[in-house]
Write a structure and sequence with these properties.
Chain lengths: ~325, ~325
């Protein structure tokens, strides 16, 4: 006999009881004031704090048939840690706003908390979950705010690239998009609805692509490393290299020239795939790239187009736009 | 003839175009790095930052038949500004994560941005919207992160109340709950579904109650004022006075004794109503209360119950729990 009470729904418990179970999982606070008061108080030793927020919504951003609670928590943390890293900062704290149906199992909530914590531990040691909010919603939604510290350095903006700079990348591009294709092509039913994953049917390469999509591991520590090495501009590549390089080029008033030979065996996915959370950075031409970055091109004075791919303007759709791409209504 | 293109939906526009229209409305950044990069950079002059997040979800937290876009933006900002104030801090920045259906009109989004900005201007001058995130969702959801500065003072926690302290309140209690009752009793159809407001049918008092529910104006500036005056404990009263006073009492290891004669003409609503966003603070007995606070009781050594109301343990349900109260399924 199954004891229903062993895994109640969030509707069965008080907010305080759910919070208690989450806080048991997310581990010790590293803050001046951690969870439990009206707000957290986080150290910002150099008098500045980096702050970003990113949301994952069931349907457009993930499907429960494909993502475990742990995956979802891990990804929700990872994508925000990457944004902090892209400023050249080290993550210090996460705040997690979780909106979920009353029918959500508490085991799902604790799994999600485990994923959040694991992402901090693996990608940003010293960063912990320091606050959050629980709400009822028909649509499972995880909004994570990440804070970070610059350790006295200037933030690395998108606008600092200069002609002559090297363009470099940390992390792999195209895998998350390939993983998404595997999900849509192999794990949907005749009506296009997601069906549960069966990883046994996948090659090792496909498994890696799927992991890149469902549980990304952006090179968070390389953000501050790039800043320390003198990066002139940096950003998280989450909407496809061409689109994100265009943003960096527009902000800097330059042209980003990309060489596809540097992009690995699947340059098409690398150029237009989304959700990789790699770091795109520019460095003065005479700087040795920090370990973990490799050169993918160079910065030129602004020409006719913001981006050149192998010397030509890119063709076709450049990247990912959440209001145009996935079909949010079939979630 | 109506020009449909004059008010497109968010599904008609690119993310960049929607962002541009929002940023036009939210006014100048006050940050070191404002919107437009991977993250914002906010000053934290004394080496600490206060951070909190709170989410409003369509259905459980608001109904579009009752809340205008402006109201929703105002409330989403106000409830977070109140949490920063409750630490004794001054709000410095908001990050806004907005998840909305593709069918949402852009005029709704700009109205919401106007409400966010108006709340900052009215309640927390110097605080601005410095970042955010747009996502597609079937459920309109606004998650706001608020940051704040302590100006060198210690944060005022829930845990600092001591026997002999005066218990004081800034703001009015019970109005938001009365406003909610007006909505449910007067502006629902036979099936309990919300119908549009008609303010002409309301008395001035009812209009005030409705405003307290839909567009609350917490006494944000009184949070730092209380801290400067020596408040020993403080919190935002959002879940009803009895429940929130219980939390303060538990955190401080004391008993909070409340005198209902101090609570105005409707003590029942004051004791148990939610969403007032008043400030509950304790001060040493010999301190003159800062202007805007009035005494509602005193702190005693911990007795049998955490809270006493007119010397007796409170009876009945103590307050608001989002997983128990509103019916989230009828939104």
């Amino acid at each position: 006999m199954i004891d229903e009470h062993a895994d109640p729904t969030v509707g069965d418990l008080s907010e305080g009881e759910i919070l208690r179970r989450i806080l048991e999982r997310v581990g010790p606070s590293a803050a001046l004031v951690g969870p439990g008061d009206d707000a957290a108080v986080i150290a910002a030793a150099d008098g500045r704090v980096v702050a970003t927020v990113d949301t994952l919504v069931h349907g457009p951003d993930f499907r429960l048939a494909w993502s475990s609670a742990f995956d979802l928590g891990f990804k929700a943390a990872a994508v925000n840690l990457a944004d902090v890293a892209a400023m050249g900062a080290t993550p210090t704290a996460l705040l997690v706003a979780l909106a979920m149906p009353e029918s959500t199992r508490v085991s799902f909530v604790t799994g999600l908390a485990d994923g959040l914590r694991a992402a901090c531990r693996e990608l940003a040691p010293g960063c912990a979950i320091e606050g959050g909010d629980l709400t009822v919603s028909d649509t499972l939604t995880v909004a994570v705010t990440a804070l970070g510290a610059l350790a006295g350095r200037d933030p690395v903006l998108r606008s600092g690239a200069r002609p002559g700079d090297a363009v470099a990348l940390a992390g792999e591009l195209g895998r998350a998009a390939r993983g998404l294709r595997v999900l849509f092509e192999r794990f949907t039913d005749g009506a296009g609805r997601p069906v549960p994953l069966d990883e046994r049917t996948l090659t090792p390469g496909e498994r890696g692509d799927l992991a890149a999509q469902l549980r990304p591991t952006p090179p968070v520590a390389l953000g501050p490393a790039a800043a320390a090495a003198g990066a002139t501009a940096m950003m998280d590549v989450s909407d496809g290299l061409v689109l994100d390089a265009t943003r960096l080029a527009e902000a800097s008033g330059v042209t980003v020239s990309i060489e596809t030979a540097t992009l690995g065996p699947d340059p098409a996915s690398a150029l237009t795939g989304g959700e990789d959370h790699a770091l795109l950075a520019t460095f003065p031409g005479d700087v040795a790239l920090p370990h973990g970055f490799h050169r993918i091109g160079s910065i030129a004075a602004r020409g006719e187009t913001a981006v050149l791919v192998d010397g030509r303007p890119p063709s076709g759709p450049g990247g990912w736009d959440p209001y145009r791409d996935w079909d949010s209504r079939s979630g």
